[in-house]
Amino acid sequence: MAANSILPPKLEEEGHGYFHWEIDNWMALPERAVSQTFTVAGHDWDILMFPRGNQASETVSLYIEYKPKESKGGEDNGSGGSDEWHSCALFTLAMSNVNEPEVFKVNTAQHRFTAEETDWGFTRFSDIRHLLTPADEDTPALIENRRVRISAYVRVVKDPLGVLWHNFHNYNSRKHTGYVGLRNQGATCYMNSLLQSLYFTNEFRNAVYQIPTEADDPKKSVALALQRVFYSLQVSNDAVDTTELTKSFGWDSLESFMQHDVQEFNRVLQDNLETKMKGTVVDGAVAKLFEGKMKSYIRCVNVDYESSRVENYYDISLNVKGCNTLRDSFANYCEVETLNGENKYQAEGFGLQDAKKGVIFESFPPVLQLQLKRFEYDFRRDAMVKINDRH
To answer: Taking 80 as the threshold, does the pLDDT of residue 152 lie above it?
Structure first.
């Protein structure tokens, strides 16, 4: 049954197994019944049942319960000792007729078992009346002659990042990962992603810290507000608020954020910081990190003539649609265009000429910022649509 089911994408199995619990006298069961302990993938479990309901009368409540192993000192030691243990599992709980197992009732779930939630399952697994009543003349009742089989199929899955199916209640990101995140103001997801990328660019962060801001007002100074965000990311135990930073841009409303994308926001931020850095020890730091050079050219095919110009860039916008890899996106960006026919190039001193038009990257910066063009205008829908092609 569930032991042979296919795992959801991106989940790796630690191990799987099953356990059958046969009840010989349903009517003699206590209010709370527990099966024998069984082991799956090195973890101990049992089946927990309330035959007359748990907070719900006239229904059978059925759960699977994780049993933390005890260390020598007597403390819970399920997955690392103390109350820090957890185990992630997909499971199926089933009740079936002992003699005719094709008569059954089944429910499936997934859960992150922790010290706070050691059991998980179904408070309303089934109406008791339905279990005791035959479906028709040819089908026996699920509970027949007071006997029934309860089965658990458990598949324990790996949790390499430690947050699979986590509800994040009382979660200490600083303690578990060494880092904290940024609070989302509602329309600032793109800003948060950029700020975290810049924060982890150590040379950029150090340059920001060296901007003189002693006399600045954080409500009006982008540099000071950014310094405070970066500092909080280093020392705070809670997610960091960015309201002060956004107000320093003069963006007070939701509409202000919706009118910008991450590329525009980044350029405004970098321009502001470059201005603030002028004449200081970090003058030119932004360009040193992010500035590259590219040459745009038009080269005639039949005569010796070329028009070109070299420009600085801080980021590159790459097409994603139809490109399988980042290399494909760069090839698309540098693809040479042929100017001929009605689209010939007017070359000074040579008139209309067939020509090749393209770009050449003359240098890349230490930190290359790429903007993947995930949205395009759809004329039929009269709206921007997302491109889901993946590299």
So the answer is: yes
